[in-house]
Amino acid sequence: MSSDASQSPPDHPHFLPEQRFFDDPITDRLLAFSMTLASEVYVLRERLSRLEQHVATLTGDATLVEAPPVSQSEDAVKFVGHLLEPLLGEQQSRGYP
């Protein structure tokens, strides 16, 4: 029995077909997985940074915070730029021609 994931099942009238951006649905799912994982990494980085700042405040130890605090939007822009660099630019580790 073969079923196409992009077809609406007859018993679910409000079911929408899966959104696809690439010809291969596996590529779509891999990109979605990567973006979900990246958002989790960003949230964990932010939480860790806040915990480090809190511990540094409680202990008075300035060595716990490595860099001066940057705004959350600046950090987000840097993170997204670093994350999308392989997708938007050329391969970093190219071989010699």
What report would you give on this structure?
With 97 residues, this protein is an all-alpha fold. The protein has a domain at 25-86. Helix content is 54%, strand content 0%. The longest helix has 35 residues, at 25-59. The model has no long low-confidence stretch (mean pLDDT 76).
Output the helix-strand order: HH
Number of strands: 0
Mean pLDDT, to the nearest integer, reads: 76
Spans with pLDDT under 50 lasting ≥5 residues?
A: none
- In terms of DSSP E residues, the strand content is under 5%
Radius of gyration: 21 Å
Shape descriptor: flat
Helix content: 40-55%
Give a brief outline of the structure:
With 97 residues, this protein is mainly α. 54% of the residues lie in helices and 0% in strands. The termini are far apart.
Features:
97 residues, mainly alpha, 2 helices, 54% helix
Describe the SSE topology.
Elements: H1 25-59, H2 72-88
